[in-house]
Design a protein that fits this description.
512 residues, alpha/beta, Rossmann fold, GMP Synthetase, Chain A, domain 3, 3 domains, nine-stranded mixed beta sheet, five-stranded parallel beta sheet, 25% strand, globular, binds xanthosine-5'-monophosphate
Length: 512
């Protein structure tokens, strides 16, 4: 591997890590650095190219982020995006003005195909790009030519090919820009000369090295839930620090069928300190007679912390508490304070209860699909890496009303059949979350010659990009037919199966 690197300089835009991720998609390793990084630190990293991000400011405000002219004289190719584009123009003597008509959203854009950035065969002369700006370049700097425009923006892109300086007013990194990835690919390969040999296999080496440097001989503690993020985090840490890693897996008993054993099978044999706490009885006892959803959640959250704390205290002081925070969590929680917010969300306030010195979040720069790739690379089984999201309180909030051992078993069996049939139908990766809910309603049915009075099971399947809004999945009737027939025949005490056809909002994805 040639260890080629492209650096993204962050000017405060929303899509900074997304740019880095797109560059990695082109097979080139990429990292984000603050725009204040001294030039000598930038050159010490020997980047093949530099990308300036967007940002919310106007270049002519005194307090806006600026950059020394020196960076344009290093001979390193630079691509400016949005604010980065305006900053390049402004710093090099062009003029930036307030738009007569601001542009937001998909905008028809006309490209000059002779520009190396737009030269890919697949890239048409006209296409939609994603714009979001109130300033524009009214005059390009000396040496630059205009390489794209829209009806309202005379300089949608500009370039000084001799100096390898390129800039686009739109956002090539977002999906809404047609062929945006091709443009980035042209930049990093044709303009910067990267060969595109970076792979997840290489990233594993880098990530392990980074963890080792941070942790040294320190002791690391991880709360392992069995979800994708914490599992990949555990796999990475185990490769990096081995026996210095302790994973505590609190099995509250409300996992899906066989899931507790699957987690144990994936980690217990590794060269780490793995502790599984089978706390089902304690949880069941605390939940006895409780049917209010919020009370259930609270009890489970608190009991979870207590169980973890009891075990963690036995370890004495640990140096690092590891968390499987991933990049979308960081954005959702708002940057800056993100780690603190997420630590509470992830493991229910653990940092307040466990003695540790520092938090480490080795996945915090990765997107979900990169985390999955990393998991595969680290040798985790596919079923674990492709696990759908699962709420912390588990099946306890999918059993409406009071939880009993019987109901839990019924739900685990029914949910298992549903998942099995969805996978058989090849729908397990296109439906983002699907599960069974045991309603507390019973109704009359007939089985053989006899009357039954049994539970109604609800099936839920949703498609979503962010889980904030969701549509119900259009599962083919033929699949639902098989699922329903199998459940009423194979699972005791269910005589009716219904499918939830509500969107979010107004419903939520979970029933409780
Ligand atoms: P709702 O039901 O709010 O769910 O539409 C949105 C997403 O969040 C998951 N969810 C949880 N995840 N702890 C979690 O880690 C929880 O307490 C929790 N409750 C809901 C839910 O499964 C869906 O993916």
């Amino acid at each position: 591997m040639k260890n080629q690197l492209v650096l993204v300089l962050d000017f405060g835009g929303q899509y900074n890590q997304l740019i880095a991720r797109r560059v990695r998609e082109c097979g080139v390793y990429c990292e984000v650095l603050p725009y204040t990084t001294p030039i000598r630190e930038i050159t010490a990293r020997k980047p093949m190219g530099i990308i300036f991000t967007g940002g919310p400011n106007s270049v002519y405000e005194k307090t806006s982020p600026h950059i020394s002219k020196e960076i344009f004289e290093l001979g390193i190719p630079i691509l400016g995006i949005c604010y980065g584009c305006q900053l390049m123009a402004y710093t090099l003597g062009g003029t930036v003005s307030t738009c007569i008509t601001s542009e937001y959203g998909k905008t028809e854009t006309f490209y000059d195909k002779s520009c190396s950035l737009f030269g890919a065969d697949a890239l048409p002369e006209t296409g939609f790009s994603w714009m979001s700006h109130t300033d524009y370049i009214s005059q390009v700097p000396e040496g630059f030519v205009i390489t794209a425009h829209t009806d309202n923006c005379p300089v949608a892109a500009m370039a000084d090919p001799e100096k390898k300086l390129y800039a686009v007013q739109f956002h090539p990194e977002v999906n809404h820009t047609e062929h945006g990835l091709s443009m980035l690919n042209c930049f990093v390969k044709d303009i910067c000369g990267c060969c595109g040999d970076w792979t997840m296999e290489n990233y594993v080496k880098i990530a392990i090295e980074q963890v080792r440097q941070t942790v040294g001989d320190g002791k690391v503690l991880l709360a392992l839930s069995g979800g994708v993020d914490s599992s990949v985090c555990a796999a990475l840490l185990s490769r990096a620090v081995g026996k210095n890693l302790t994973c505590i897996f609190v099995d509250h008993g409300f996992l899906r069928k066989n899931e507790g054993d699957e987690v144990e099978a994936a980690f217990a044999g590794q060269d780490i300190h793995f502790i599984r706490i089978n706390a089902k009885d304690a949880f069941m006892e605390k939940l006895s007679g409780v049917s209010d959803p919020e009370k259930k959640r609270k009890i489970i959250g608190e009991e979870f912390i207590r169980a973890f704390e009891r075990e963690a205290k036995k370890l004495g002081t640990v140096d690092f508490l590891a968390q499987g925070t991933i990049y979308p969590d960081v954005i959702e929680s708002g940057c800056g304070n993100a780690a603190v917010i997420k630590s509470h969300h992830n493991v229910g306030g653990l940092p307040d209860y466990v003695d540790f010195q520092e938090i480490i979040e080795p996945l915090r720069l990765l997107f979900k699909d990169e985390v999955r790739q990393l998991g595969i690379e680290l040798g985790l089984p596919e079923h674990l890496v492709w696990r759908q999201p699962f709420p912390g309180p588990g099946l306890a909030i999918r059993i409406i009303g009071e939880i009993t051992e019987d109901k839990l078993e019924i739900l685990q069996d029914a949910d298992w059949i549903f998942r099995e049939e969805i996978a058989k139908a090849g729908l397990d990766r296109s439906i983002h979350q699907y599960f069974a809910v045991l309603t507390n309603m019973r109704s009359v049915g007939v089985m053989g010659d006899g009357r039954t009075y049994d539970y109604t099971l609800a099936l839920r399947g949703v498609t979503t990009t962010d889980f904030m809004t969701a549509d119900f999945a259009r599962i083919p009737y033929e699949v639902l037919e098989v699922v329903s027939a199998r459940i009423v025949n194979e699972v005791k005490n269910i005589n009716r199966v219904v499918y939830d056809v509500t969107t979010k909002p107004p419903a939520t994805i979970e029933w409780e």
